[in-house]
Here is the input.
Amino acid sequence: MAKQQHQHHTLTEQHTTLALFSDTIITSRNNPKIKQLRTLLKRPERERTGLALIEGLCQVIEALQQPGRVCQLIVAPDVLKSQQAWELVEAYKQQGLPWLYVSADVLECLSLKYAQQGIVAVIPQRWESLKELRLSTGDYWVALEAIQDPGNLGTILRTCDATGCRGLFLLDHAADPYDPVALRASRGAILSRRLVKASFQDFVDWKRLHHYPVIGTSDAAAVHYRQVGYPSPAILLMGSERQGLSQEQQAACDLVVSIPMRGNSDSLNVAVATAVVLYEAIQEDTY
Amino acid sequence: MAKQQHQHHTLTEQHTTLALFSDTIITSRNNPKIKQLRTLLKRPERERTGLALIEGLCQVIEALQQPGRVCQLIVAPDVLKSQQAWELVEAYKQQGLPWLYVSADVLECLSLKYAQQGIVAVIPQRWESLKELRLSTGDYWVALEAIQDPGNLGTILRTCDATGCRGLFLLDHAADPYDPVALRASRGAILSRRLVKASFQDFVDWKRLHHYPVIGTSDAAAVHYRQVGYPSPAILLMGSERQGLSQEQQAACDLVVSIPMRGNSDSLNVAVATAVVLYEAIQEDTY
Here is the structure.
């Protein structure tokens, strides 16, 4: 794929000229194609179509470098400056896949933060089946019970990437990792981490069937998170922002650890707590 | 103070009655007092007045329990249900300090998230002078260089509270810890942690004068964050979300540590990275 892309070297200037003279640039936010794309900013339409919008130069470049990862490309030719991105855009277009040129203003309405970088992509969501998933030694995963805040969810994905954690189980009614706020916080980790959606009960049945250890966290647990040996593979289970893990959920864990608190605070932000335990769990592995 | 508050026991019903019949309830968002209070949602007016608005039942209760911490109280009597809060409101009113009764709708315009809890307070901002600050053995502080995101800032304050870190240095042009988003993420830690504002240069001059060790973080540092002994007192210095610490800033540190990354990601969220190093630094202390 990388080779194929580099067969289409062209200078930015040439692309811009091409864009200006032979391609239509959509300048109205009310264009039906744009209106359709904008619906992907809302969860119901993302769920109905199985698609999502990603933005940010680094993230879109990473997606374009993964075969089959982008299914539509939206470029503001007056705004996109990156030579590398233009080369990837050209390679993408050669595949005959759909793309649009739009004005800076139109791109802005498809973008949460990085409109000034000039490119947005539509990607198919990727979800894996719980039933078929198997873990190997060295694999760590995080399971989030009913996480509510997409920013926390995205930050946890980013931490998964940094720690080499394979991916996330999203249990019960959770925020959407393809939410623009989650995507922004994930900093591209959505493209490299794996995702599984399940009910808590199905997750427990699956982990029991395969004897995968699950480590929960609770401020009431007697076991200090630094005073245990972490198994591998393992799944770190975190409770929701509001309620943490219920007694029943803790009972389904093989081990429940606590992170000590010293001040007035009785809890940590869930993304912070996840990182603190993850970094402890993986520390025995080689870096 | 606690004793004084409990001299004014009254039942919620009585308070509500009082509110309905003898106190004016402001029902218009355009009331000049309300318009004035709303300006505190913006940073320039917060800086001009040195005040801030806090919301959330737990946070306001905590503020009311600290002598001299609240300088104005705004209550929606039809919404506030907490008996404890009503007792504190009554004790507060007995001090002759200013308060307003407002409708649910008016409270909503002063509130980011917790309007349904029925109470908002105006507090004076508290900042300490760098020059007069001294650290003792066991003290940890966090210094944030030009942090931009108020959510990250608030989350770091919350982590400071959980780890017993004394407070924050906000260096150079930083987000405002009294921003409603920061306050919401801090979960009340704003009321218990200490705050110092300074330029990076003044901070460095001060730490050199007093020989306080500063520990920086950088993904390029050769020293693994788990393979060092952390001094005490100490200050953990974190770079901005975008740029991390510059070479000059790292050179001003006594030690620079790195948090290893395994995936595609080249950095962690700043609040996550702060927590990972803080929990490592304090782990040798007794809990």
Summary: Chain A touches chain B through 36 residues (CB under 8 Å). The radius of gyration of chain A is 21 Å.
